[in-house]
Amino acid sequence: MPFYSEKVMEHFANPRNVGEIKDADGVGEIGNPVCGDMMTFYIKVKDNKIDDVKFKTFGCGAAIAVSSMVAEMAKGKTLDEAMKITNADVANELGGLPPNKMHCSNLGADALHRAIENYKSKSAGDNK
Amino acid sequence: MKRIYLDNQSNTALDQKVFEAMKPYFLESYGNPQSIYSLGGESKDALETARKQIAELVNANPSEIIFTSCATESNNLAIKGIADAYKDKGRHIIVSAIEHFSILNPVKRLEKEGFEVTYIPVDGKGNINEAELQKALRKDTILVSIQFANPEVGTIQNIKRLAALTKKSSEATFHTDAVSACGTIPVDVADLGVDALTFSASVMCGPKGAAALYLKKGVKITPQIEGGVQENSKRSGTENIPAIAGFGKACEIVKQELSESSTKLQKLRDKLISELPKRIDYIYLNGASQNENRLPGNVNFSVEFVEGEALFLLLDAKGIMAASGSACANKSLKLSHVLNAMNVDVAIGQGSILFTLSKYNTEEEIDYVLEEFPKIAQKLRDMSPLYSYFMQTGKRKEAGPGTDFDHEHDHCEIEE
After folding, report:
1. Among this protein's residues, is A60 annotated catalytic?
2. Residue A82's domain is classified under what CATH number?
3. Which residue of B has its CA nearest to A27?
4. Among B126, B148, B127, B129, which residue's Cα sits nearest to residue B137?
């Protein structure tokens, strides 16, 4: 049996939405190179929806596949909907992850939430 | 797709001649070597022929070879068996920090049982610090175990000197785990002056299921598997004759081919070691340099800004099989203890990639790796936030913006 599901390998080998957004509305980062993974998410927000999302990830196959899947899941969702995406949802969408990868590499939703929080705190500041 | 196997430190392909030597002992000569009738005699002959071939490879007497099922068992027998046999003389054991887990975990258990263990550090290239060994040796030291060559970073220790030093300053029994050495470099127990030595068929183009512990005549050991009279009651259990016959043949072949295959391995290794840094920036060789004490088939680089598991998964997609010492590639989720002991920068060590060669690898295969690997490293760098940060600022990100040490605490520390 392969270590990773077909879907994980597919997203890992052909990740969607890799890159940076120069004038991003929100940026969220999680992880640490010392641990072996680190994710940066960039979002553009329009009408309270995630209009565009890009990421850069340093990490193992699972970390890259998770990032790609989160970006795909988040695109087009309202900010409230996107905040409800959990790491477990992402793992399910990927057809499961090996048990030892569940905690360490499955951080994409957290990184996305940080990007949304970053956007919210910035726009709250703008309104003052 | 073509398969290029470059993970020979974990296991080697079986030599066809070894397979032929094993075949008669599955369906025809299936007797128990302890049985006295003719069928048993055929197996007994195979057992003793193999013992002779195996002893010859390491210049031992056949009566000094104990067959086991794998190198892990040989190491467990050596550590636990020798510690128990000499525990009335002392309870101090010395090992190196870069031993295989089949040495480190048994000594951890002995620590719990009241033995004291000293771990000898290594330098940045994986060499044992001789002064530290000298300092650690005591009157009550009963066992010193130091790996002949490290399978991960390829560094070969000067076992002859370390054994002599041990003998001069203590009465300890000296064991060496020679799994990665046997098969690629000459190993001569008499010349080395060791008391016990572990080696295994599965990394010298022999089968899985057979390994040995050389135990010098007169050295005491307490059996760890007890039962019948097999292996002089030092290791009971019906002998795995097909695997042992294959192990014998594999040793005979190694003895014949060693100098030729070692030269070939070195040539291929040196091509990878000298060419990869020309094609990929910011990569660092782990272990001894190729002109020093490095195993002929070992190549280990850290590729900065990327992670090792991602590297070998993409290599696998191109038909190339390799390994990594990164935390993600380890079931323990920690950077390899060997890279750690060598003080390799933890963030950079995450990008470690290990190629280990065998006599079956060709120059065409190495050229294919040289062509594909730089593209794979670049593909991962193009999606790495560490790389883009470095390219934009010229700074390493280890303590840069966004670094989240609380989070590190959460997920680096799970399950010991």
Report:
1. no
2. 3.90.1010.10
3. B402
4. B129
